[in-house]
Each structure stands twice: as structure tokens, then as C-alpha cells.
Amino acid sequence: MGFVSNLFSNPIAGLMVQGAGVGISTAAARQQAEADNMARQWNATMARQKAQLSLVQADDARKRGDVEAGLRRLEGTKLKGEQRAAYAASGVDVNYGSAAKVQADTMAWAEYAAQTEITNYGREAWAHEQEARMQEFEAQRQLSGAANVGLATATAAIGGLTGMYDRYSGWRK
Q1: Among residues 55, 120, 132, 172, which is most buried (max CB within 10 A)?
Q2: Burial zone of 162 (CB within 10 Å; 0-12 exposed, 13-18 middle, 19+ buried)
Q3: Chain-centroid distance, C-alpha 111
Q4: What proportion of the chain, given as a percentage, has pLDDT over 70?
Q5: CA nearest neighbour of 80 among 68, 60, 95
């Protein structure tokens, strides 16, 4: 008989081969758990960076809203000045009556436009903040799903050793 057939017919040799397989399986389980953990760490880091970017975008949206609101108010002030000049040029007292009401309406509409800008950019900021919260949640989810390397290794070893014991027990009967 050849070497291979002798190897598999010898119980001790069979246990040795199976033991080598258990060792390889245990090492592979450890390596896989470590690789999975590294991937989860990477994913968590990327999620946190995305969260930070979303917060920066939210801050930027609010600042742009403030700038746009300021521009709407400035436009209203400019229009009010033009109205006052036109009324004054035609001899109308700009501080009373219809002329004063038109100017007040102009400023009210300018403030309405300013508040609309603040609201719209605020909604954009809110969406970015929600995205940041989701990314932080994803980072936590990644980290909470990390494998226990020792447990993965022990599980593989115990499973393999149990198989070896079963084989040994079968030979002893």
C-alpha cells in the first residue's frame, strides 16, 4: 500500500492530520475575525468623517441663509430709499399716509423674504444634521458588530477538537 492509504488507515496519523486541520481552521478564524474588525473600524472611521462633513455643510447652509437674508433686507432698504426719493421728488411727504404705508409694506416684504431664506437654508442645514446623525449611528453600528477575536478563535478550536474527540472515541470502541 502507498503512503497516503497507510496514513488514512492509521488512527494516530488520522488524528494528526485532523489536528493540523484544526490548527489551520483556528488560525483562519482568527485572521478572518481580525480582518472583519479592521474593515469595521475603517467603515466606522469613514462614517464619522461623513458625519463631520455633514455638520460642516449644515453650518455652511445656515451661514448662507444669514447672508441671503441680509441681502433681502438690503434690497428692501434700497427699494425703500428709491421710493422715498421718488415721493420726495414729486412733493409727497414720505413720512405720512400712503407713502409711509408703501414703505412699511416694502420693509415687511423684505423681512418676509429674509425669513424665507433663513427657513429654506435652515431646512437644508437640518437635512445635513440628520445625515450626520445617521452617519454617527452607522459608525456605532459598525463598532458594535465587531467580532470577538478570541471567541471566534476558541469556537473554531473547540469545534475542531470536538471532531477529533469524536473520531478518537469511535476508534476506541
Answers
A1: 132
A2: exposed
A3: 36
A4: 76
A5: 95
Task: Name residue 38's amino acid.
Answer: M
Q: What are the tens digits of pLDDT across the range 91-140?
A: 999 999 999 999 999 999 999 999 999 999 999 999 999 999 999 999 98
What is the grid cell recorded at 73?
433686507
Q: Which residues contact 138 (CB under 8 A, 6 or more apart)?
A: 43, 44, 47
Q: What is the CB-side half-sphere exposure of residue 12 using CA atoms within 13 A?
A: 0
- Give the pLDDT confidence of 18-53 residue by residue, as tens digits: 677 777 777 777 788 788 888 889 999 999 999 999
155, 27 contact by CB (below 8 A)? no
Closest CA to 104 of 129, 86, 80, 135: 80
Closest CA to 25 of 165, 171, 169, 163: 163
The three cell numbers locating residue 141: 453600528
Residues 6+ apart with CB under 8 A from 61: 121, 122, 124, 125, 128
For residue 35, the tally of other CB atoms under 10 A from its CB is: 11
Round to whole Å and give the CA distance between 75 and 69: 10
Q: DSSP label at 121?
A: H
Q: By the 8 A CB rule, do 106 and 76 touch? A: yes
